[in-house]
Structure formats: structure tokens, C-alpha cells
Structure to design on (109 residues):
């Protein structure tokens, strides 16, 4: 029985090198995108605001109301409100608020 397993031991290194070679070939075929982090594409929401200043003005009014209530436009409460009203995540809401405040309503804090 031991003689049967001797033949399997001889196959291990070639099989191992074959699998490693296959992995290297797959990595090369994937191209340089495999080694670089993915680049974020422009947000559709920011493009929507660019193309629709009325949307930005409405958001400015919402942020002014939040400021009048004593809250920052960047507080978790306000970001949650913006996220809920726009149907986005709070992280995306933070980006949107920063963008809109910077371009359309610099008086908002």
C-alpha cells in the first residue's frame, strides 16, 4: 500500500507549481486593475444637483431650517434627515451636504 502513495508524492510539486502558475497567469490576465484600488466614479446624485440648481436650493432651505433649530448641517441628526429625504446613505449625505453648502449656500454651518 505504501508503494501507491509514493507515486502521489511525486505529483505534488508539479501540481503545486502548476496551480501557482495558473494563479499568476490569472493575475496577469486581470491586468493592472487587480493591483490598483478601484477608482470611484462620479456620483449620480452630485451630477443631478449640478444639472438641477432647484434641487440644491431646496436642500439649502432644508439645511437653513436645520441651522435655525440650533443644529449643524453636518451633525448626525441632520445628515440622517438629508439621507432619508434623498434616499441615500449618511456617508453619501455628508458628501452631498458638503458639495451643496460649498457651491450654493456657504452661510450654512
Amino acid at each position: 500500500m505504501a508503494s501507491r502513495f509514493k507515486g502521489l508524492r511525486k505529483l505534488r510539486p508539479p501540481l503545486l507549481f502548476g496551480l501557482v502558475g495558473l494563479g499568476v497567469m490569472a493575475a496577469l490576465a486581470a491586468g493592472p486593475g487587480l493591483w490598483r484600488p478601484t477608482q470611484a466614479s462620479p456620483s449620480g446624485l452630485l451630477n443631478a444637483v449640478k444639472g438641477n440648481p432647484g434641487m440644491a436650493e431646496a436642500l439649502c432651505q432644508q439645511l437653513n431650517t436645520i441651522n435655525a433649530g440650533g443644529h449643524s448641517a453636518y451633525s448626525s441628526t441632520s445628515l440622517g434627515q438629508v439621507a432619508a429625504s434623498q434616499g441615500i446613505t449618511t456617508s453619501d449625505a455628508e458628501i452631498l451636504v458638503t458639495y451643496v453648502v460649498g457651491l450654493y449656500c456657504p452661510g450654512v454651518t
Remarks:
- The radius of gyration is 27 Å.
- The chain has five helices and no strands.
- The first helix runs from residue 2 to 30.
- The helical segments are 2-30, 44-51, 53-68, 76-86, 90-103.
